[in-house]
Design goal:
- The complex is a heterodimer.
- By secondary structure, chain A is mainly α.
- Chain A has six helices and two strands.
- Chain A has a domain of 53 residues.
- Chain A is flat and about 70 Å long.
- Chain B contains 26 helices and 18 strands.
- In chain B, the strands form four sheets. A six-stranded mixed β-sheet of chain B has the order 4-3-2-8-9-18, sandwiched between helices. In chain B, strands 10, 11, 12, 13, 16 and 17 form a six-stranded mixed β-sheet that branches.
- The longest helix of chain B has 48 residues.
- The chains are: A mainly alpha, B alpha/beta.
- Chains A and B meet through helix 1, helix 2, helix 4, helix 5 and helix 6 of A and strand 6, helix 1, helix 2, helix 3 and strand 13 of B.
């Protein structure tokens, strides 16, 4: 076990490790019968794909299940949860049916993927890939943006690996699958 | 009449950029963030207290709800491994893993990938962290007997929430749990009612509109950029800027994180500040020099004595070798003389031999054909012995140089016999050899005299017509520089497959290899193989044109005209004689590094010596200081295909909330919280940008949380103290164990500071 900090030698490093180790301390609050289910570590991609599949299946079952009376399609108004539902004088049951129908049609309104921001619609400003300064020019051979002719001379001297590295910073590198 | 005079200042020499001495206090890399063991508190006897856990991706903050600050703050890391020496399993949590190298190598984060996800992936790490929290908070009952409030990311997937609840209820026996969103807690704590919450966290930035204390989560949005992505971006920028410097784990992730925290700030005018960032004046203020640990190269300085001793030894060995060689030569000489004696003796014997046969026998013994050969051999040996004697020993006097006569050459071939013809051929060869040598000597002398005469002429010309001479020299310099440039461009072109130079090369190759080089009807009488190539010396130059080798070893320059040397020669002359041609105009000064943008970018305003180990282990952060945090406003800089923060806020207020009653009020209270808000200048920049894009009566006002990092925890603590959002059912928004077991793992009570059920 190699100590990183120089201010310790072997013995007191050992002592400190013993002190820090939490495997030794008592944990009475832990339920001894609790066995963690296997394979509970799921990656984000897996979790999200499972969730989207479940939503999709829910949607199809709801559509044909007859659990709700089919209502004529009403245009949904802009904005979401009405802050003052009592404003509209409606039957409670009709409210519930409407909500169910809305959920059945559009799926849950807030999911992890639906929250993600959309791509930008503004024109992007270009910056030099090497120096970061504003770049009025683009090298047609490599696709890098550059600031002036001096940086261009540098670009011409780069190797292919370095060029791809600069492009990858911008997300424009060629990825071979 | 009044008469004003303004003082005339001599023009300051703005052309020279003076290099600066290195800074006196460079920044250093930080040590691993081990701050000692976190304290454990004794059991507090507050009845209604709850345990508040702010489960963030950068760090977990936990404590009792009645304390003003969280008593525990640590990153969600765990290292669990079996140590060989002690033969038992060890577990370390949080910053404590940095204390040991093995632990650091084995550490796992609860999130995967740790830089861009805020959904828990590794539940073992989460379990370990919870154990750590509970034991540090001094709980030793059979179960955890306090309610727990936890924060979760916006739109947390159901699976994550279910597993967390399972862990808490089943594994630790927690009586009640409530979940909430950290930025909303922070907003509530800072007295927010209606406004826009910008939660700029570690792995992402959330924008949530809140109207009358109710969050509109369907209009919320998340930008995938936070402090951890900044760290990754800076690492890649530095790796591209200083190749080879960041390899081999010389800089760890936590050190880059500290670099980001210490040196980066949000610029108020990105493009403008970028343009002036690398200008020479004031560069030493903007450029931060970070010194990495380095190893000084060992320069063995021998003392004078040692040097002398080494020299002596060298001379000794040289002398010894010489002596040995001389001895050997002497031996050879003696042996040769002995042989000579023997041959002379043999000759005598042959001459005195009684019969021809015995003479023949004697000759045959030594493989001589006849007497004349023996004679010749003797003569040769005599000559060589004499020469050697003269060289080594110097006894015999120099013999007069033989006059080379070629009598046989006069006589025509018919008159001589066979032997004579051979002898004549030998003599002709000798004569040709001699003549060639004489010719070469004459040529050299002629060349030397020619050069001398040219130089004299040049001097005379200069004295006669100085201006003209200078002009001529300058023109020559220009033309040489042009030729150098052309040659370089030609070489570079050869690399490109489709360029003119490359195609010409292919044509030359093809014509060399083809059978019909001229492509025309073969001229009468001309042999097929003999196309005349090679007869003229200039033909061989075509091979030089074809060769495409790279110039790395510089061997190509030796063959061609060394244009560099020519240029230097001309410049030397100009320097000597031309009054206007100063040091500055020479080619060397034109490549001055102080005017180079790239040098300012990579090495700042300081001299750079690539040999020095110290300077090779330096990082200069100038442009990166504003480039890295800027990505949240312009994600295209880092290749993130999402809209920037300003645009998100603008579309939210302008389009998605259109028609909403509170649309006009949102911009009045834009609340920024989270670790990213700690960058200097973040709120001002956001305010300025929004003021430019939102309507004038929006009344843009941006404010920062009092403590962007800890206010989420404090908000949750305050909320729990107030009974956890009073709302549906008793116990507020807490889900009790019984309810959870009855209603299923994903049961969630919605409240105004948490997620909605999906």
């Amino acid at each position: 076990m190699a100590p990183i900090t120089t201010a310790s030698n072997e013995t007191n490093h050992q002592a400190l490790l013993d002190k820090l180790d939490i495997a030794k301390i008592q944990k009475p609050f832990r339920n001894p019968n609790f066995k963690a289910p296997q394979r509970r570590n799921k990656s984000v991609k897996q979790i999200l794909s499972d969730a989207s599949r479940r939503e999709a299946s829910l949607l199809t079952t709801q559509n044909n299940s007859g659990a709700s009376t089919p209502m004529p399609v009403t245009p949904t108004e802009a904005g979401s949860l009405h802050p003052n539902p009592a404003q509209a004088s409606q039957d409670l049951s009709r409210l519930v049916l409407e909500k169910n129908q809305k959920a059945a049609q559009t799926g849950p309104s807030v999911t992890y993927t639906s929250i993600a921001a959309a791509p930008s619609t503004r024109p992007k400003k270009r910056y030099c890939d090497i120096t970061g300064l504003p770049a009025p020019y683009r090298d047609s051979k490599t696709g890098l943006y550059y600031h002036n002719k001096e940086v261009y001379a540098v670009i011409r001297g780069l190797s292919t690996a370095q060029i791809q590295e600069y492009l990858a910073l911008r997300g424009a590198a060629t990825v071979l699958k | 009449m009044p008469h004003f005079t303004l003082p005339i200042h001599p023009p300051t020499n703005t052309n020279t950029n003076t290099p600066l001495p290195p800074p006196s206090n460079p920044y250093l890399l930080t040590d691993p963030p081990f701050t000692g063991q976190l304290p454990s508190s004794r059991q507090q006897t507050h009845p209604g207290t709850a345990i508040i856990i702010d489960n963030g991706s950068s760090s977990i903050r936990a404590g009792f709800s009645h304390s003003p600050t969280p008593s525990l703050q640590f990153p969600p890391l765990m290292a669990r491994y079996t140590d060989r020496k002690l033969a038992r399993r060890l577990t370390f949590i949080g910053s404590e893993i940095y204390f040991d190298g093995t632990a650091r190598g084995q550490s796992k984060s609860a999130y995967d990938p740790p830089t861009s996800s805020n959904i828990i992936n590794n539940w073992d790490v989460q379990e370990g962290c919870l154990e750590y929290i509970f034991s540090k908070l001094g709980l030793h009952g059979q179960n955890v007997d306090k309610a727990v409030v936890m924060t979760e990311p916006l739109a947390n997937p159901a699976y994550a929430r279910r597993t967390m609840s399972e862990l808490l209820f089943e594994g630790f026996g927690v009586p009640a749990v409530a979940y909430g969103i950290d930025s909303l807690f922070s907003y509530d704590y800072n007295g927010g009612r209606t406004g826009l919450v910008v939660g700029a966290g570690y792995t992402g930035t959330h924008v949530i509109p809140v109207v009358d204390r109710q969050p509109l989560l369907s209009q919320a949005t998340r930008l995938d950029w936070g402090r951890s992505q900044c760290v990754e971006f800076l690492t890649r920028l530095l790796r591209a800027k200083y190749p080879g410097l960041l390899t081999g784990g010389k800089i760890t992730e936590t050190q880059v994180e500290d670099l980001v925290r210490e040196h980066c700030y949000v610029s108020q005018d990105f493009s403008g500040e970028m343009l002036s960032m690398l200008e020479w004046t004031g560069l030493e203020n903007r450029d931060h020099l970070v010194q990495l640990p380095y190893q000084e190269k060992e320069v063995v300085v021998k003392t004078d004595e040692e040097l002398r001793v080494v020299e002596e030894r060298k001379r000794e060995s040289g002398r010894r070798l010489q002596e040995q060689a001389a001895k050997m030569r002497l031996e050879k000489l003696v042996r040769k003389e002995q042989e000579l004696e023997y041959y002379r003796d043999l000759l005598l014997r042959v001459q005195n031999a009684p019969t021809k046969k015995s003479a023949r026998e004697l000759l045959d013994e030594d493989e001589f054909k006849d007497e004349s050969q023996l004679d010749r051999r003797i003569k040769e040996m005599e000559k060589s012995v004499r020469k050697q004697r003269n060289k080594d020993v110097g006894d015999l006097e120099e013999e007069t140089a033989e006059v080379h006569t070629y009598p046989l050459l006069e006589i025509p071939d018919e008159d001589l016999d066979e032997e004579g013809v051979k002898a004549k051929r030998g003599q002709r060869l000798l004569k040709a050899n001699h003549d060639a040598r004489a010719r070469a000597k004459a040529e050299k002398a002629a060349e030397a005299s020619r050069l001398a005469s040219v130089q004299r002429e040049d001097d005379a010309y200069r004295e006669r017509d100085f201006e003209g001479w200078v002009e001529e020299r300058r023109a020559a310099r220009q033309s040489t520089m042009q030729r150098i440039k052309d040659r370089d461009r030609f070489k570079a072109d050869l690399g490109n497959r489709k360029s003119q130079a490359s195609q010409m090369r292919m044509k030359a190759l093809a014509s060399l290899a083809s059978d019909n080089p001229l492509g025309r009807k073969r001229r009468r009488g001309q042999d097929k193989e003999d196309d005349g190539f090679g007869a003229d010396d200039g033909d061989w130059a075509v091979y030089r044109d074809i060769q495409r080798g790279n110039d790395e070893d510089g061997e190509g320059d030796e063959e061609e005209e060394d244009l560099g040397a020519v240029l230097r020669g001309i410049e030397g002359e100009l320097l000597k004689w031309d009054p206007e041609f100063t040091e500055q105009s020479t080619q060397e000064a034109m490549r001055d590094w102080t005017k180079s943008l790239y040098h300012a970018f990579a090495h700042g305003p300081y001299v750079f010596d690539s040999e020095s180990a110290r300077e090779s282990a330096q990082l200069h952060l100038n442009v990166e200081r504003i480039r890295v945090p800027e990505v949240i406003f312009q994600p295209s800089i880092a290749g993130v295909d999402q809209a920037g923060l300003t645009e998100l806020v603008e579309t939210l207020i302008g389009n998605r909330m259109a028609g909403h009653t509170a649309q006009g009020l949102l911009a009045r209270d834009i609340f920024v919280t989270g670790g990213y808000a700690l960058f200097k200048g973040f709120e001002e920049r956001l305010a300025n940008e929004l003021r430019g894009v939102l309507p004038a009566d929006a009344g843009v006002k941006v404010r920062k949380a009092r403590d962007p990092v800890l206010d989420a925890w404090r908000g949750a603590a305050a909320w729990a103290g107030k009974g956890g959002g009073g709302g549906s059912g008793s116990g507020g928004a807490f889900v009790t164990r019984g309810e959870w077991m009855e209603k299923g793992g994903e049961y969630l009570k919605e409240h105004n500071l948490g997620n909605v059920f999906t």
